[in-house]
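Field reference: "sequence" (input) and "structure" (output). Example, Transporter substrate-binding domain-containing protein:
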Amino acid sequence: MIVFNYKNGGMKMFHKYKFFIILFICFMFAGCNQTTEVSNENSSSELEHEPEQTVQLDRILRDGVIRIGTTGDYKPFTYLNPDTDEYEGYDIDAAKMMAKDLGVEVEFVETSWPDLMDDLLADKFDIGMGGITRTLERQKTAHVSYPYLDFGKGALVRVGDKDKFKSLEDMNQPEVRVGVNPGGTNEKFVKEHLKNADITVVEKNLDIPPKVADGEFDVMITDNIEAIIYAKEDERLFSAFEKETLTHSQMGYLMNQDEESFHNWVNLWIDEMNLNGEFIKLKKKWIE
């Protein structure tokens, strides 16, 4: 503690220390102010560089439209009718009902089985619909919804060959010509279980049934529901393994990962559709 004696020239000493005290206070104030400015600059910089969080459900509601990715080649779930240039089918009706329940418009975006996942990840559509199989492999990259329909792999053959193909082994022969579409679970199944057969990958799924009927192929591996539809449309064809399917699977809808609010909404919507019997109505309309 400094004690000033004003009688012995203390006033001079006081003024001398007063100058240093004021200088010290100014220095401390400037330092604090600089720290505050740096802190504010850092905060502003962090805000400027913070990635924008876009919640998909919010964006769909904001834009007033949901984009549905669909292949248009997989009856009875998704089919691009060349006469009307409109999509139709079980999942097309479901997509329109989904959009209505969201209170938005629906926009269909064409994709393909080989490009389905890439198009989803490239944000070309919000949700994939149209006979998509729930698989562990797809779940690694995307998010697959609750199931809405059970099914299994079957085979489409000519009526005259229905007693010829009663097992996988019957089809897994070098002389058996198998047609399959690329990029999906049908191709994967064929390559795993029919390695000895004569396999041809056909780009357009819709081209395969008439090729079987005309004798170009002996077998088309597809989901039993699709086989049933084609057998109804062409009396030359027969749906093999219709009830005792070669696999047991479920269909679901495909979404991007890390969009929990959208996932929750879609899954609850599926529950509501089941609860209210809407999927049963769609099944009666398009499958039975």
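The longest strand covers residues 127-133.
The chain is about 45% helix and 20% strand.
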